[in-house]
Amino acid sequence: MAIHEILIQQLFNGLLIGSFYGLVAIGYSMVYGIIKLLNFAHGDIYMLGAFSGLVFLSIATPAIGAGWGSLILGMLISMLLVGLVGVFIQRVAYRPMLKAPRLSILITALAVSMILYNTVMLLSSGRFLPFRTEISTESFFLGPLRLTETRVVLIVAAFALMFIMHMFITKTMYGKAMRAISLDRDTCQLMGIDVYKIIALTFFVGSALAAAAGIMAGVYYGTIHFYMGFLIGLKAFTAAVIGGIGIIPGAMLGGLLLGLLESFGTQIPFIGTVWKDVFSFAFLILFLIFKPNGLLGRSESERM
Amino acid sequence: MSEPVLSLKDLETRYGQIYALRGINMDVQEGEIVALLGANGAGKSTTLKTISSLINASSGSVIFNGQDITYMQPHAIVEMGVIHVPEGRMIFKELTVKENLELGSFTLNDNEIRKKRMKRVFELFPILEERQQQMGGLLSGGEQQMLAMGRALMTEPKLLLLDEPSMGLAPIIVNNIMDIIKHINRDQGTTILLVEQNAKAALKFAHRAYVLETGEIVMEGSGEEMSKDESIVKAYLGE
After folding, report:
1. Partner-chain contact A189 B74, CB within 8 Å
2. d(Cα A76, Cα A66) in Å, to the nearest integer?
3. Which ipTM value was assigned to this complex?
4. pTM to 2 decimals?
5. Which fold has domain A3-134+144-290?
6. Which of A78, A139, B117, B130 has the most Cβ atoms closer than 10 angstroms to its Cβ?
């Protein structure tokens, strides 16, 4: 392959993986913005989404046949369900901790993470499960770009979700309230905003997007397992930091950038795919040292 | 006298063990401007925060239109028509002027009414219309105060709680803001409870005033009476 073909291919791959990171990072970043919690359980919500997607896919497939229809149906149901799980976790685990010292809620998040992945580990016997969609994996070429139907649909869906999210945040009253709460919670109460309701909504939206990303990753990689959320949780955190944690467009930007960094990074001579994660986290460290507020972040002293 | 719009009964509020309000009693009648005066730390802001439930009272009660709102959630109190414009204005600096105003009408579901109200706010504060796409943080102090008040008016409040609207503003802008407060009271019939350190400015147009000292009301009377009494002004208002 000529060099420009490789670059275009890597650009596409980077954007695809990056859009998964971005979708997970949105929830990470929103939750940080609104209650200043680094939600370590967020990666496990992504994992939960993948498992829930597989369950509903296997229920829907016999009913309406294999293909995109059952996948999309399974995905929507899972987003709804996992979104509600997110709200439930918020209610029972985080809300009682909102007035406690910050470290308490952070430890709570670690506990939630452990509960989630250990539960799924027991239920799935710790195995890798195949995520079969029976959608054509035949590849075709678009100019120099080698594509499959799956990859095209995935990237379109991921970008569509990010676009919807962006519109929600900038155009609706609830979206504006979310941004306002991350700026000043007390004043929001004076506007008649029920802050706890908006916090719950934030968890719903963030968890639903993470679930969508989990299912997409299942479709893309073809297998899922109970520990798949760990690494992407860290990657989403990295993406959120790169973009400026607490800032939603920043999370999307950070996710895409991280995806691109990884896919191009592995093309550098002597740095193979095995170094991919080292590459990402090296970037995280660089950002934390030189630009801790991220690309879109403003300078502010109180960060965690 | 008719039933007051707002009455505070033996209201006590404390921060930990320290009492900020030691049982205050106060009435505000419909259509009045009532000034709440006193030195720093007298408990003026605490009074407003207790009314809007940002802080919970430790005992006593807040009655609004005959209903006990002492332990209601802050957002529920807003829905009843009690709007608190906090000290320091507290506009959302990283949202646009327009978004700030829209959030003021969060409790409203009708977009048409929202637009109409925004138009009225723009009539009152034309500068906000010019700057509607700017970030709130880029406004000057006086403009930020106008935004904070405009944002409060987006709900069409029955009772407006204003905390130090003149703080940090140049005298000419203070006059401007005070005129607008009078105007809101006269033309829209909004009842106003006004906390001010600038006692002279407040007493010029307040119908009545209360003076707070270390969490207790030490004096009340009509605005006119109080502003004439030199000893009061000297003793309690630090002029």
Report:
1. yes
2. 16
3. 0.87
4. 0.90
5. ABC transporter involved in vitamin B12 uptake, BtuC (1.10.3470)
6. A78
